[in-house]
Amino acid sequence: MSENILNNLATAIVSLDHELKLRFINQAAMNLLDLSPNRALGQRIADLIPTLANSEAVLFEAIQTNQTFTQRRAELQLLSGAMITTDLTVSPTAEGEWPTLLVEFHPLDRYLRIDRDAALSEHQEVTRQMLRGLAHEIKNPLGGIRGSAQLLESELSESLKEYTGIIIDETDRLASLVDRLLGPNSMPDMRLTNIHRVLEKVRRLVELEDRRAAFVRDYDPSIPEIVMDSELMQQAILNIVRNAMQSLEKSPDPQITLITRTERQFTIASIRHKNVLKIEIIDNGPGIPPKLREHLFYPMISGRPDGTGLGLSVAHSIIHQHGGVIELSSEPGHTVFTIIIPLEVSNDG
Questions:
Q1: Where does 3-107 sit in CATH, by number?
Q2: How many Cα atoms within 13 Å fall on the side-chain side of residue 296?
Q3: In CATH, which of 3.40.50.2000, 3.40.50.300, 3.30.565.10, 3.40.50.10490 is domain 191-342?
């Protein structure tokens, strides 16, 4: 198979010599593995993809036995530090005096993300249905308690009204908590909106609340107006930025970066979109513990002892209402929340 044909394949392919040194890399593999021929050719594959060091014995065995093998869901760490999940197919080939290996990488991250988003949306819908029933059971007696406290207050002396005031305040607090658990309960008011105006409102609000963090803005001014509910979107982004601010409490040089870009051919919930808006909210805090990452958008899940676990759940619900998704990647010093929303204008909006 000629190099010209390999370079035009969508599948990422590299060729290794008998010492597991890279002798060829096609364009798809360059993009997937973030490598250039000048940097990669002649280097051992384990030096280019550190996590493959554990597979060297298997690769050598494939050369010696002339047997093809496949590794499913291999998690590979690239030189950039990024992690990707792929299926690997290793095929021995005979070219010249020494045997070689043809390694095919089939990236799975997009499909895993689609499955994860679908599972999260399904889980949240079940949770919302449960919470609606629970809210009804809670709010009815709360209303009775509040009304009774108000009637009792009118019959009490001033010295005792403090206690009925506490009852009324606490019932109001619980009712508000239930409302927040349910998330947005009205249909979005979808209008053409400049996303950068929404982001700037959020930035100003957060700076008024807390001036510790420096904001870095990297906006793409060519992004067109997008159909969305600006108030709801502001709330979603504000919840995420506040979450980032809270994670920066002990950072010596706290910083939040806001980035906007567009991306082509992106799949959301099994639907392929020609163009999407991508908003990245990046903080340089300590990162989110791995055990929390998969469940962070579920209601009542929080990494802080005093957190309610509602902010990110509400943000997810709002983004879902807009046909979008939220993605998360986190490591110490670099946590990224990515909001992705279709750019196509809906005729139903």
A1: 3.30.450.20
A2: 21
A3: 3.30.565.10
